[in-house]
Amino acid sequence: MELDELRQMSAADLAVKEREVREEVFRLRLKLRTNQLDNPSGYQKARKELARIKTLITQKSRAAAGSAGNA
């Protein structure tokens, strides 16, 4: 998923997406450890996507906290 698409998502949608990607990373890790994974780069891509999502969630929560504190 593109970064611009992720940025347009709400915090609730990002939380749902985070859970989905976490489950995907878990499944890929199991396949990697049992030598059943055909494409190891998929595991790395999923981990990077999870990191991006978590970063956006943190940014949105800080922005919301900052705007609530200033208002």
CATH topology: Helix Hairpins
Oligomer: single chain
Helix content: over 70%
Structural class category: mainly alpha
Distance between the termini: 34 Å
- State the shape: elongated
Number of helices: 3
Average of pLDDT:
92
Write down the secondary-structure element order: HHH
What does this molecule look like?
This protein has one domain: Helix Hairpins (Orthogonal Bundle), CATH 1.10.287. The chain has three helices and no strands. The chain has helices at 3-8, 11-33, 41-70. The N and C termini lie far apart (34 Å). The model has no long low-confidence stretch (mean pLDDT 92).
Notable features of this structure?
71 residues; mainly alpha; Helix Hairpins; 0% strand; elongated
Secondary-structure map:
Layout: H1 3-8, H2 11-33, H3 41-70
Helix pairs in contact: 2-3
Summarize the structure.
This protein is mainly α.
